[in-house]
Each structure stands twice: as structure tokens, then as C-alpha cells.
Amino acid sequence: MKPIIGIIPSLENESVRVHRDYTDSVRRAGGLPFILPYSTDDEDFNQMADQVDGLLLTGGGDIDPSLFGEDPLPGLGPITPERDHLEIRMIRLMLNRGSPIFAICRGCQILNVAAGGDMYQDLDSQLDGLLQHTQQAPRYHASHKIRVVKPSLLYQITGEESFKVNSFHHQAVKEPAPGFVVSARTADGVIEAIESRSHPFVLGVQWHPENMTATDALAHRLFQAFIEACRRKKGQRAARISGRSEN
Ligand code: MN
């Protein structure tokens, strides 16, 4: 049985939507993607967190700054409070269960906010001397370098101290949340990846590896490492359930 990967879709004009690069990348790495619904029922949240072996957080629009105690700046784009709410609740349930989370772009930021951290609403108006983080090149093209922190989960997975990634963001993590550390930055100091110190696999990346898994070995390896962690979690849960039934 493949591990089940819960994916929270975006909510746009009353439609839920996931780019197929996410589901294709999960499938390519051996996982079975399940799109999660926009529910407001407490029981649904608990059941979703119990049923999935890992959570994939996808890219999308901006995040409500009131979630990290700020008023909106002029550069803030469209926000989706309902999506913020669903993601934050699922992240906290998964963190409590020690379940794997792979968080991409917006997902990296909402992961940090859910864990009690903050973020930049609009990099260009809040920081000077930035590289281009909204690339004009095709989505699969790796445009800027990142420097990977050693030791880190990200380094353990990639084995690279530096590599190039794509970039489509005007927001970013400001300071990692309590219990989290920076695992990569660009040369301008922008945080490009964070990870939990106390969970086996909770990783947020600011770039879009799902657009690169067909052509880029490192991007595919990130998904493989995530799915592998989900497979281990699935095994632990199965062992616990069979242990219970023997008692
Ligand atoms: Mn970037």
C-alpha cells in the first residue's frame, strides 16, 4: 500500500484547485495523493489528520498578516482566510501526531506561522538589496542559488551545500518559529527553507520543486524523502493498531 498524502487545495472563486504538478510529483515518488475538503467540522479535521500519512502544503496567494500580529502593508496581495484557517489547523494536528509535512512556497510560510513564527508580507518593500525572487523564466528553470545549512535535514536529503532553485514569491519567512531552524538562504539573506528540530520530517521550501521533478534529480529526491518518511509513519501506525487489537 502506498502512503496517503493529504493535499490542501487552493480556494479560488468557490472552486478548489490543485496544479497537477503536485499530484504528479507525489505519484512519481511513490505516494498516493488525496485532495482534502474545505470542512469546518472539528471531527473532519481529526479524521483527516488520522487518515493521511503525510501533509503536502502547496503554493498560492498571500497569508493574512493578522495571523502574525501585523496590519496589512500596501504590497500585500489577495488573501484567503478560509484557506489559512484550514492549513493552520491541519498543520497543528499533524505536528501533534509527529506526522511528516512537506510545505512548498506559501506552504513554507503558513507552516512557520502555524508554529508561532512570522513572515515578510512583501519582500520588495521590506528589504533592500534583494535578488529576483519572482523569476521571469519558465517554472521548471532553476534561477537562483541557495546555500544549505549543515547539518540539516535538507542537507541530509540533497547532499549539496549549494544548488539552484526556481523562485516565485514576494513573501518569505522572517524568523523561524520556536522549534524550527533555517535550512537554506539565498545570498541576499532571504530564508529559502526551514525545518523542525523535533520532528523526523517537517520541511518547508520557498521554491517550487513540484515544477521540476520531471527534469531535476534533486527536486525528485525531495519528494522521495518526504514519501519515504510518510511510509515509515504509515508503518508505525499500522504496528500500533495491530498492537492494540492484540491486547
Ligand atoms: Mn527565492
Describe this protein's structure.
The chain is α/β, with parallel strands linked by helices and 247 residues long. The protein has helices spanning 20-28, 42-51, 81-97, 106-114, 123-126, 153-158, 217-246; strands spanning 4-7, 10-12, 15-17, 32-35, 54-57, 101-104, 119-120, 144-148, 162-165, 172-173, 180-185, 191-196, 202-205. The protein has a single domain, classed as Rossmann fold (3-Layer(aba) Sandwich). The protein contains seven helices and 13 strands. The model has no long low-confidence stretch (mean pLDDT 96). It binds manganese (II) ion. Manganese (II) ion binds at residues 133, 144, 167, 169, 186, 192, 206. The site of manganese (II) ion has 7 residues, from loops.
Tally the helices: 7
Outline the biggest β-sheet. 9 strands, mixed
Share in helix = 25-40%
What is the 3D form? globular
Quaternary structure classification: single chain
Across the major sheet, the strand order is: 4-1-5-6-13-12-11-8-9
Measured between the Cα atoms of the first and last residue, the distance is: 25 Å
